[in-house]
Amino acid sequence: MHGRLKVKSTAEQQEAKRKEREKKLQIYNAATSKIFSKKKDGELDEELLHLCGEVLAANPDFYTLWNYRKEVFLELRKSKSPTELQNLFLAELFFLESCLRMNPKSYGTWHHRCFVMDTMPDPDWLRELELCNQFLKYDERNFHCWDYRRFIVKRANVSPEAELDFSMSKISNNFSNYSSWHYRSKLLPLIHPDSGQPMGVSEDALLKEYELVQNGFFTDPDDQSNWFYHRWLMGRGELKQAVNSVSVFQPEGRISVSFLRHVQVGKSASISLECDGSPLKNIKWLNHENKEGHSTLWITFFLFIPFRLIGVILPIAESWTLDVQLVINNLSVCSAQIQVLAEEKNSRKRWVPSGLSSRFSQEMSSVKAETLQQELEAITQLMEVETDNKWAVLTAVLLMKALDPQKHEAEIMVNLDKLQALDFKRVEYYKDLRSRFIVEAAIDAMDRESSSLATTLSLPHRGLTKLYHSELLTLLTSLNLSDNQLRDVRQFGFLQSLRELDLSNNCLTTCHGLQNLPCLEKVVLSNNQLSSPESLATLQTCPYLKQLHLVGNPVVEQEAGLEGIKEILPGVEIITQSSS
Amino acid sequence: MGTPIKDVVIPSNAPKTLFLQKHADYIAAYGEKKDDYEYVMTEFLRMNGMYWGLTGMALAGQLDRMDRSEVICFVQSCQHECGGFSCSVGHDPHLLSTLSAVQILTLYNALDAVNTEAVVKWVKSLQQADGSFYGDKWGEVDTRFSFCAVACLTLLHRLEELDIDKAVEFVVSCMNFDGAFGCRPGSESHSGQVYCCVGMLSVTGHLHHINADQLGWWLCERQLASGGLNGRPEKLPDVCYSWWVLASLKIIDRLHWVDKDKLVQFILACQDEETGGFADRPGDMVDPFHTLFGLAALSLLGDRAVKPVNPVLCMPEEDIRRAGVNLQFL
Ligand SMILES: [Zn+2]
């Protein structure tokens, strides 16, 4: 069904083809009906093997017939001598090889070969490795063959070092070989393990890879493989779990805890709370969507007792200490402590990374920093020759971001604009990337002023298309995102402390996401594309909402729309005219 | 000197509008020619083929043209004692045909026509200690089968029968350096496999394992100058990848990262105006497989002539809603 060109043919040719097919069909039908009747009668013999072979040679995806062959072999194993069996299996391997030459991408054929190798008395694994070499010479991207190779390597205990050499030989033959780069990413952590490094690969091994892939993109700057691999090398691996922030809302008796990584509280994970050393018990946790699924934000649940909402009962002392601990499978994963004062309605604490210029980049040794600096210089050279190469520009951006986002901020933005012009098809990707970098810079700035526990963030007129990292903004009380290009507010459920939100002059068509925000009082949605009362329905779940600005939205242009909103949101002041 | 980038050129006379009626006619006629060479030779795909055709018809709003009772009767006759379905009568049961059977019955709201209890038991029996799934009793392991298993059981509302944590762990172990997924741990990334793994994580509510920006970037880089999408780096574009890549992007909320207009142009150019149906590339032979994925992709791209499609299960959204299936989206 792939790559069959439609050709115009004469009536004569069509008739000839029809006749030929009719003949083939007769043979096929005769063979299959014989096969099915033999199978039905339990005749698992060499004749069945032969018949299946005839059909499979032309139809390798007829999976049932591969199964029959397996059944025949399992049956023959009971009666044949080891030598006879070995010869039968050798013939099977020969047959399979001819099938694979005709159709090297048939799942069934490759899987049957695995079966044969695992079932025959005396398998020659090294010969199979040689077969893989041959097939990969013919098509170096055949993933079936690569997978078969990995199967052989495992069975024959071929060393990862030998396989790394093999991938090297493929790459030196042709840098444009995604399969080989992929293979290296799997082998390096086995050969040069280092759990302290982000990729699990020791630093000096990674530095050699930088050199190799640099050769690659200088040889072939338009080839994706090198660039994808390079981006992997620059990666920062997985974050360690930690408490990101803790908030205590005293009047409601509500506590929210946000983590750096997702967790599902309930099953094997639990959050323990201690007030001045004594545990708070019987607490139910729900995530930011009031559900039980994986999330980074967990909130103590209000137990509903008829006619009354009851929160966690908190101490009345003037000052007390709250200890938070995440426990998974009875092991403490991370913890935090917060000092709560009675006169404060809302006490909060935010985790700030120490010793990092940015929480969004990794800790770097001086060797690594030096290497990245050299990379940046090399890329800059490449950009001078290949002025329109988007990969080089993007890589420069990523290098600058990894090295020192603050120092390179202006240059990063210029290059992101350039990328949007160079690679128009992916313009929205670059806009989102830009939006992410802007928010990351803002959070880095908040981290630097760690003492003041910033609770307001203002990013108007920044061309934001998406609010990244809202999960790190759980303590904000005021957020101004006016005059941007936001299309939705789906990630806003994390903003649990938010009181005021300015989203005027964006492209919103719905408020879906502004859900269960327990402190939200004022929302400015002027000049968006909200066209129906239903698009505002989720605001019903924000209990303290007092004021809603809707100037310049289609929904308030008709009387019915405004009436509909008032019905949905009784008691909320709806502003439909700008105060000049 | 560089390796030339593989792509196609869209001929200037290629179709530019959707021939929806012709596609529906093509599918309806396909099932009629039961003695046709092509038809007979693809019997090992029959159940999948029927799912492609029927879903294509449903997306075109013309499912009522197909013979419902004949279809259900065929599906029933393919269920084995073990509970699994084969692709055709007399063939062996397999997870791939079992999912297609369950999807067909869901389209027709006729799950009670078969022994669903046995399906559940059989699918469950294929799960291995490492969380992976065999495609059948012969032991081939593939993340496609992980998707088939959870998709089947969620359509039957019996997902809890599986060891979901283990199943997720296995799928996550197939994630690669590029954020995308392969067939088994160690296998290279491939868009079809990405669709299965992302779909699997959506069905089970574990999408947080995905680095959406990293995966989304790899996926949107599948778009070539012609507008078409390929399945892996340095490969030719193909209509079926329009579906696998787009559906994955949709699930992780990154659909806007491709150039929709150019992609629509490419997909429309793969239609055969004469016969109806879509081919993999402009000028190639059409088949039901690419016809369904062409239509489904156009639906995701906002073509109102085609019914809204569910990106996880590749069925009309209205049927998924009626079935009451819960899916996660980022
Ligand atoms: Zn295709």
Automatic annotation (TrEMBL), chain A:
Residues 1-22 are annotated as: Disordered. InterPro entries: Leu-rich_rpt, LRR_dom_sf, Prenyl_trans_a. Keywords: Prenyltransferase, Repeat, Transferase. GO terms for biological process: prenylation. GO terms for cellular component: Rab-protein geranylgeranyltransferase complex. PROSITE patterns: LRR, PFTA. It catalyses: geranylgeranyl diphosphate + L-cysteinyl-[protein] = S-geranylgeranyl-L-cysteinyl-[protein] + diphosphate. GO terms for molecular function: Rab geranylgeranyltransferase activity. It is an enzyme of class 2 (transferase). Its EC number is 2.5.1.60. The keyword Hydrolase does not apply. Belongs to the protein prenyltransferase subunit alpha family. Catalyzes the transfer of a geranyl-geranyl moiety from geranyl-geranyl pyrophosphate to cysteines occuring in specific C-terminal amino acid sequences. PANTHER family: GERANYLGERANYL TRANSFERASE TYPE-2 SUBUNIT ALPHA (PTHR11129:SF2), PROTEIN FARNESYLTRANSFERASE ALPHA SUBUNIT/RAB GERANYLGERANYL TRANSFERASE ALPHA SUBUNIT (PTHR11129). This is Geranylgeranyl transferase type-2 subunit alpha. It comes from Elysia crispata.
Automatic annotation (TrEMBL), chain B:
One of its GO terms (cellular component) is Rab-protein geranylgeranyltransferase complex. Heterotrimer composed of RABGGTA, RABGGTB and CHM; within this trimer, RABGGTA and RABGGTB form the catalytic component B, while CHM (component A) mediates peptide substrate binding. The Rab GGTase dimer (RGGT) interacts with CHM (component A) prior to Rab protein binding; the association is stabilized by geranylgeranyl pyrophosphate (GGpp). The CHM:RGGT:Rab complex is destabilized by GGpp. Interaction of RABGGTB with prenylated PTP4A2 precludes its association with RABGGTA and inhibits enzyme activity. Interacts with CHODL. This is Geranylgeranyl transferase type-2 subunit beta. InterPro entries: PGGT1B-like, Prenyltrans, Ptb1, Terpenoid_cyclase/PrenylTrfase. CDD domains: GGTase-II. Keywords: Metal-binding, Phosphoprotein, Prenyltransferase, Repeat, Transferase, Zinc. PANTHER family: GERANYLGERANYL TRANSFERASE TYPE BETA SUBUNIT (PTHR11774), GERANYLGERANYL TRANSFERASE TYPE-2 SUBUNIT BETA (PTHR11774:SF11). Belongs to the protein prenyltransferase subunit beta family. GO terms for molecular function: metal ion binding; Rab geranylgeranyltransferase activity. Catalyzes the transfer of a geranylgeranyl moiety from geranylgeranyl diphosphate to both cysteines of Rab proteins with the C-terminal sequence -XXCC, -XCXC and -CCXX, such as RAB1A, RAB3A, RAB5A and RAB7A. It is an enzyme of class 2 (transferase). Binds 1 zinc ion per subunit. It catalyses: geranylgeranyl diphosphate + L-cysteinyl-[protein] = S-geranylgeranyl-L-cysteinyl-[protein] + diphosphate. Its EC number is 2.5.1.60. Residues 19-315 form the Prenyltransferase alpha-alpha toroid domain. SUPFAM superfamilies: Terpenoid cyclases/Protein prenyltransferases. Its cofactor is Zn(2+). It comes from Elysia crispata (lettuce slug).
